[in-house]
Automatic annotation (TrEMBL):
This protein's record includes keyword Signal: yes
Domain Peptidase S1: 29-258
UniProt family annotation: Belongs to the peptidase S1 family.
Organism whose genome encodes this protein: Trypoxylus dichotomus
Name by which UniProt lists this protein: Ejaculate serine protease
MF terms (GO), sorted A to Z: serine-type endopeptidase activity
InterPro entries (UniProt xref): Peptidase_S1 (IPR050430), Peptidase_S1_PA (IPR009003), Peptidase_S1_PA_chymotrypsin (IPR043504), Peptidase_S1A (IPR001314), Trypsin_dom (IPR001254), TRYPSIN_HIS (IPR018114), TRYPSIN_SER (IPR033116)
């Protein structure tokens, strides 16, 4: 995965920065399969300048949850929009324009550590329309804990091969086991795995999110427990993905949205 902090060379906008691997926007489903929006009706494509940029999830009639790092480098926030209700990143569903004043980055987001990597988007029109298949995903209780080993699903339009820029047209998803914070900290010994983070993936590699999936949901038993945030590479042996822990930011979500 990668959030793509800036430890890389500057690339053009749509390439984000694939250096050390915290890749921003543009995230990753590797080792998964193509799926229908009918089974993931909460999935959103966050778009910049008419191109898929990040994932996101519908959490209420007017609210989308995504990653804060998706917005930290773009000065013209008026170029952001969202596509909902489509299995395809470039067609179908419905496009909603975003007012730049309606993007709310977590108050305690730290780009250097990717702590509290979360943002909320308010959309004027209802996201829950009968015209297209959309539904809000459930959220966990504040500070709710989830046991290691339980399977959760990550979804998005990110890369399917880490070394290739091309992203799939159709939505993809992959099942990943949760990894304990202590094991995740051992893996990322040079970083801090805070309580605002949750880890998932296979240490043996082969399955992961990737560039283009950033901001997308990690869902367990119909409850969104994570937001695709960062990681070392995509499905690399010896590493797992790091997600924003939704249970730890639940009170912030309630404060901003009243949900």
């Amino acid at each position: 995965m990668h959030l793509l902090r800036i430890e890389c060379i500057g690339f053009i906008l749509t390439v984000y920065r694939i250096c050390r691997v915290q890749s921003q926007g543009d995230g990753r489903i590797i080792g998964g399969r193509s799926v229908s929006i009918l089974n993931y009706p909460y999935q959103v494509s966050v778009r910049y300048n008419r191109n898929h940029y990040c994932g996101g999830s519908i959490i209420g009639k007017h609210w989308i949850l995504t990653a804060a790092h998706c917005f930290e480098d773009e000065e013209d926030l008026s170029k952001f929009a969202v596509r909902v209700g489509s299995s395809y990143r470039s067609s179908g569903g419905k496009i909603h324009q975003i007012n730049s004043n309606d993007i709310f980055v977590h108050d305690d987001y730290l780009s250097n550590s990717t702590d509290n990597d979360a943002a909320l988007i308010y959309v004027d029109d209802s996201l829950l329309s009968d015209d297209v298949p959309t539904r809000a995903v459930a959220l966990p209780k504040p500070n709710e804990e989830f046991p290691p080993g339980v399977l959760a699903k990550a979804s998005g339009w990110g890369r399917t091969i880490a070394t290739e820029y091309e992203k799939p047209e159709q939505l993809r998803a992959v099942e990943l086991p949760l990894v304990s914070r202590s094991e995740c900290q051992d893996i990322y010994w040079n970083d801090t795995i805070s309580k605002s983070m949750i880890c998932a993936g296979y240490v043996e590699g082969g399955k992961d999110a990737c560039q283009g999936d950033s901001g997308g949901p990690l869902v367990m038993n119909s409850i969104q427990i994570g937001i695709v945030s960062w990681g070392e590479g995509c499905a690399d042996v010896g590493f797992v993905g790091v997600y924003t822990n939704v249970a730890k930011i639940r009170e912030w979500i309630r404060k901003v949205t009243n949900l």
